[in-house]
Amino acid sequence: MSASAEYLAYLAELLAPLGRIRTKRMFGGAGIYCEELFFAIVIDDVLYLKVDDESRAAFEAEGLEPFRYEAKGKLMQMNYYRAPDEALESPALMQPWARDALAAALRARK
Question: Contact 56/50 with Cβ under 8 angstroms?
Answer without folding.
Answer: no
